[in-house]
Write a structure and sequence with these properties.
There is one protein chain. By secondary structure, the chain is mostly beta strands. The protein has one domain (2-225). The chain is 9% helix and 54% strand. It has a 15-stranded antiparallel β-sheet that branches. A hairpin with a 5-residue loop joins β13 and β14. The longest helix has 9 residues, at 126-134.
């Protein structure tokens, strides 16, 4: 399955995000990419490639729960460029590899003397987070999410509030919070980001993520399904 989103900031197109995933009854594999396009790509190259494998637990009334086993990513934010690999198979995630990408680029773990992150039990990776909110089967609860996220260097927390249905749409309001592995300057810059997920309901009752609107360091961001 492929999910493709156009990405804009302050109403200006900046790139596209793609999520490719394979699922069966008990396991999943997913790859998420983001790349800048057009004028934004000429001005600043920003990119993300993340790959995750894991297991799925499906409840009768709740949404499918994705539990990662192994995650690797390469990310270039324009401020820092890193690669990481994380083992999620144990009680707590373990970073297997973390380093800088490209000559002269500092890893985020040492840039600005950022403290070490301490991921807790039950943490998931960024790709699994996105996959968790992409679709919901008929009858599954939407907006049922409060989870810690670990990318190998930093910890964050994603929280969704109760759903707001109406007009064939369901809206979930959420907050994304920086919790560990960020420098003092990054924490002073901003600690939390509000976001909104909007779902459309298909004829069979399946909820499909249509768009995301979120605070960013550069203005209001928007992801719109293509």
């Amino acid at each position: 399955m492929r999910d493709l989103f156009a990405v804009s900031i302050a109403h200006v197109s900046v790139g596209e995000m793609t999520v490719d995933s394979i699922q069966d009854a008990e396991t999943y594999a997913a790859r998420m990419t983001f790349r800048t396009t057009g004028l934004a790509g000429l001005l600043r190259q920003v990119g993300f490639v993340g790959e995750t494998t894991g297991t799925i637990r499906r409840g009768k009334d709740g949404p499918a729960r994705f539990r990662p086993l192994r995650h690797r990513e390469e990310v270039d934010t324009g401020r820092h460029a890193n690669r990481t690999e994380v083992d999620f198979s144990g009680a707590r995630p373990v970073t297997l590899d973390a380093g800088a990408l490209g000559a002269g680029r500092l890893a985020a773990s040492v840039d600005g003397a950022a403290p070490s992150a301490r991921p807790g039990p039950g943490s998931i990776d960024p790709v699994t987070l996105i996959l968790s909110v992409m679709h919901a089967e008929k009858g599954a609860a939407l907006c049922d999410l409060d989870v810690n996220v670990f990318d190998g260097l930093r910890t964050t927390r994603a929280i969704l509030g109760p759903p707001r249905p109406g007009g064939g749409l369901v809206v979930c309001d959420g907050t994304y919070i920086r919790t560990g592995g960020f420098s003092a300057a990054e924490m002073d810059e901003r600690q939390s980001f509000r976001f909104t997920l909007t779902y459309v309901l298909d004829a069979d009752g399946t909820a499909r993520l249509d768009r995301v609107e979120t605070d960013t360091l550069y203005g209001k961001g928007r992801l719109k399904r293509r």
